[in-house]
Design a protein that fits this description.
It is built from one helix and eight strands; from the N terminus they run E-E-E-E-E-E-E-E-H. The protein is α+β, with helices and mostly antiparallel strands. Strands 4, 5, 6, 7 and 8 form a five-stranded antiparallel sheet that branches. The longest helix has 33 residues, at 103-135. It is elongated, with a radius of gyration of 23 Å. The model has no long low-confidence stretch (mean pLDDT 90).
């Protein structure tokens, strides 16, 4: 029986982009959701790829705000920032201050966030007990 060769990773797709009014073809990873044809870039280094953004709707006093916003990002033609490698763009507050996290840093932060959420869960359970005790009539 012939050996089955391992599947090669899918090739990036070629998409149209605009740079200084000129249509160019650029490789675009399959995870990128950005429409490059809608931008007219001043420099090729301005081209970036961005994956689907996820956010957590967090309750606030006056409504809901998006926090913990993240997406995979890449600046493929910038060679002075980790040589153009993809990273996890992370905006903790929703105000646009994005950290560029490598996989190990992203996973370490996610572990810290999970531990924090477990502590919040314990607080919510404690609050439920406190409220239950507060509404129970006392025996005289």
């Amino acid at each position: 029986m012939p050996a089955i060769a391992p599947a090669s990773p899918p090739a990036p797709r070629l998409v149209a982009a605009m740079c200084r009014g000129q249509r160019i073809a650029v490789e675009c990873p399959l995870w990128c959701v950005r429409d490059h044809s809608r931008e007219d870039l001043a420099f090729l280094e301005d081209l970036s790829h961005e994956g689907e953004e996820i956010a957590l709707p967090a309750p606030e006093f006056s409504g809901v705000s998006a926090v913990l916003i993240s997406s995979i990002r890449e600046w493929p033609f910038v060679k002075d920032e980790e040589k153009g490698l993809p990273y996890l763009g992370f905006d903790a507050t929703g105000f646009g201050d994005v950290a560029a996290l490598a996989p190990a840093a992203a996973l370490a932060f996610i572990d810290q966030a999970a531990a924090h959420l477990e502590k919040m869960r314990a607080q919510a359970r404690q609050l439920a007990e406190v409220q239950r005790d507060a509404v129970q009539p006392t025996e005289d």
